[in-house]
UniProtKB/TrEMBL annotation:
GO terms for biological process: response to hydroperoxide. It comes from Demequina mangrovi. GO terms for cellular component: cytosol. This is Uncharacterized protein. It holds the Pfam family H2O2_YaaD. InterPro entries: YaaA (IPR005583).
């Protein structure tokens, strides 16, 4: 089982800690690729048009400025750096050592800067999205598409890939050697169902935590649907599995209004 998560837009900068050690992160084979992106990010963040290059507003000036010293900044476990709806719902910042150890083998956060990290990997806060283009590197989704498949296919090792990412991050890595299920979320209100972004992130976070803590790991899409059904009556009202001829199967989690 491999659970793929998107990073959060917002990140919490730790008050203290050592700088990132690229050799100590998961997938050390990505160290050179990470260095190239980090150097390009630091350079772009010092440009006069840095806000435009990174596609952010003036309110995020401090976060962009922090990018300039990304290699010197304090680091902390990714479980504490990534914040926001999905990560709050998963309660990831409070995961104990045993849970983080399980997640190290089954959860990857796909990142525009790091490529992919586990919740236990120690990283600094940064501001960068997968849709950004950085100079000669071009679009980061295209850049990481050259580096991630070998690493993540090997980690999945033919097991079920459970995808909770948004489209921009799917573009950086699409499983080719494992069964693949994309998790979608719909809200049911007055007999009608619709996608609500905030609640989709929340429910995906609940599912990720549910799966990491479970004793049994789903091996098929049907197993995953059964595991998700264990949340019915708490977070969900229905679970629907739709096999697809091409691309990932679809697991739809339905929440009440």
């Amino acid at each position: 089982m491999l659970i793929l998560l998107p990073p959060s837009e917002g990140k919490t900068a730790p008050p203290s800690g050592d700088p990132v050690d690229l050799a100590a992160l998961s997938h050390p084979a990505l160290a050179d690729a990470r260095r190239v992106v980090g150097d390009a990010l630091a350079h772009a963040s010092g440009r006069d048009d840095a806000m435009d290059v990174l596609g952010v507003g003036a309110s995020l000036h401090q976060e962009v400025e922090r990018n300039r010293t990304v290699w010197e900044n304090a680091s902390a476990p990714a479980s504490q750096i990534y914040t926001g709806v999905l990560y709050d719902a998963a309660g990831m910042a409070a995961w104990d050592a045993a849970t983080l150890d399980k997640a190290a083998g089954s959860v990857r956060i796909v990142s525009a800067l790091w490529g992919a990290v586990s919740p236990a990997d120690v990283i600094p806060a940064y501001r960068l999205s997968m849709g950004t283009g950085l100079g000669d590197l071009g679009k980061l989704a295209t850049y990481w598409k050259r580096h991630l498949p070998a690493e993540l296919d090997a980690l999945a090792d033919g097991g079920l890939v459970i995808d909770c990412r948004s489209a921009a991050y799917v573009a950086a890595y699409r499983p080719s050697e494992s069964p693949w299920v994309a998790v979608t979320v719909q809200r049911e209100l007055n007999g009608k169902r619709a996608v609500v972004s905030h609640m989709a992130k929340h429910t995906r976070g609940l599912l990720a935590a549910h799966l990491v803590r479970a004793d049994a790991r789903p091996e098929t899409a049907a197993d995953l649907a059964d595991a998700a059904a264990g949340m019915i009556g708490d977070a969900l009202v229905d679970v629907r599995l739709t096999p697809k001829a091409k691309g990932p199967d679809d697991l739809t989690l339905v929440i009440a209004g």
